[in-house]
Amino acid sequence: MKKERQAVILAHYYVDGAVQEIADYVGDSFYLSRLAVDLPQQTILFCGVSFMGESAKILSPEKTVLLPDKTADCPMARMGTVEEIQNVQSTYPDLATVCYINSTAALKAHADVCVTSSNALKIIRQLPQQFIYFIPDQHLGRYIAGLIPEKTFIYGDGFCYVHTSITREALEGTKRQNPQAITLAHPECPKNILDLADYIGSTSSLIKYASQSDEKEFIICSEPGVLHPLKKNNPDKLFYQVPSALPCQDMKKINLEKIIFSLETMANQVEVEESARMKALKPLSKMLELSL
Ligand code: SF4
Q1: Probe residue for ligand 1, chosen from 54, 76, 135, 159 as the CB with the greatest number of ligand atoms within 8 Å
Q2: Given this model, what pLDDT does residue 284 score?
Q3: DSSP state of 136
Q4: Shared-domain flag, residues 51 and 121
Q5: Confidence of residue 33 (pLDDT cuts 50, 70, 90)
Q6: CATH number assigned to the domain comprising residue 112
Q7: CA gap 97, 134 in Å, rounded
Q8: What is the best residue among 79, 250, 254 to mutate for testing ligand 1's pocket, by most ligand atoms within 8 Å of CB?
Q9: Average of per-residue pLDDT across 71-92
Q10: Phi then psi dihedrals of residue 237, to 5 deg
Q11: What is the domain range of residue 147?
């Protein structure tokens, strides 16, 4: 069906392992958004949540972008309002609004640049403004702020319920049971989790770190789907989840039946209204430019 439709299947690390297995490319938001632009196929089936399909469509409007389940959404992507953004923008003259890619096109439209957890540090360091308004994820924003002390950060109040479900108590328990294990954490986790981590990074950099490390055991503070590529690529290593970690319910809505249905019917196409697309395109294109 995929060949018939001349489609390419992209999957985020947080979807089920069975879905990752049939994808042409598996990766994090940054890698997948770049691929969506660069790949020659005119039909992209995006196994992820709506802001990912939306970003692909914004960057490549001539392509058909399919989301196997259009109700798969990221709650954090909607945490913030245009009024809040405009209030902060009118308060600070020398301000750059930096929008995490995990956001709706409506929020992106009010940003100067988008970032992912892979490229936020590199991009914000290049911005000339003294004040950085980081939306919507407060935890990623605070983590990056700690690495760029020369700038002054203001934060949105968004958060990811998956990464904030990892509690300090549960992590300490997992560390006590596996004292030899290295702790790897995604920066969407709160500071009290990051304080206990040996390494902090985007999903792809956590996978790279564990794969290249000589250590054999790792505690993963991120969405449990990451354990699929970790175990697959490192059969000689052991990976432990923190028991309080919730799966991302929306990422788990994507399954093989829905993928087949989308390809058969070409249903669930992502549409972004042209004026909204043009407004969100600017910060997304700026992200691609500054992350080179
Ligand atoms: S893991 Fe968190 S940030 Fe990612 S899609 Fe799910 S709710 Fe959104």
Answers
A1: 76
A2: 96
A3: S
A4: no
A5: confident
A6: 3.40.50.10800
A7: 6
A8: 250
A9: 97
A10: -115, 160
A11: 76-159+281-290
Q: How far apart are CA 66 and CA 262, in angstroms?
A: 7
Shared domain for 286 and 147, answered yes or no, is yes
pLDDT at 30: 83
Residue nearest to atom 8 of ligand 1 (CA): 74
Instruction: Clarify whether residues 181 and 234 are in a common domain.
Output: yes
Confidence of residue 167 (pLDDT cuts 50, 70, 90): very high
Q: Give distance in angstroms: CA of 117 to centre of ligand 1.
A: 12
pLDDT at site 184: 98
Shared domain check, 155 and 167:
no
Residue closest via CA to ligand 1's atom 6 equals 248
Average pLDDT, the chain: 97
Nearest CA, atom 1, ligand 1: 248
Looking at the structure, do residues 169 and 28 belong to the same domain, yes or no? no
What total number of domains does the chain contain? 3
- State the closest ligand 1 atom to the C-alpha of 14, by its place in the atom list counted from 1: 1
Residue 2 lies in a domain: no
In ligand 1, which atom is closest to the CA atom of 249?
Answer: 6
Predicted confidence at residue 199, as pLDDT, reads 98
Do both 65 and 99 map to the same domain? no
C-alpha–C-alpha distance, residues 141 and 120, integer Å: 9
My answer on whether 91 and 68 are in the same domain is no
Please check whether residues 229 and 263 belong to one and the same domain: no
3-state secondary structure 203-233: HHHHHHHHHHCCCCEEEEECCHHHHHHHHHH
* 95 DSSP 8-state letter: E
For ligand 1, residues with CB inside 6 Å are 14, 49, 74-76, 102, 160-162, 223, 248, 250-251
| pLDDT in the model for residue 241 | 97
Q: What angle do CA 55, 56, 59 make, to 5 degrees?
A: 85
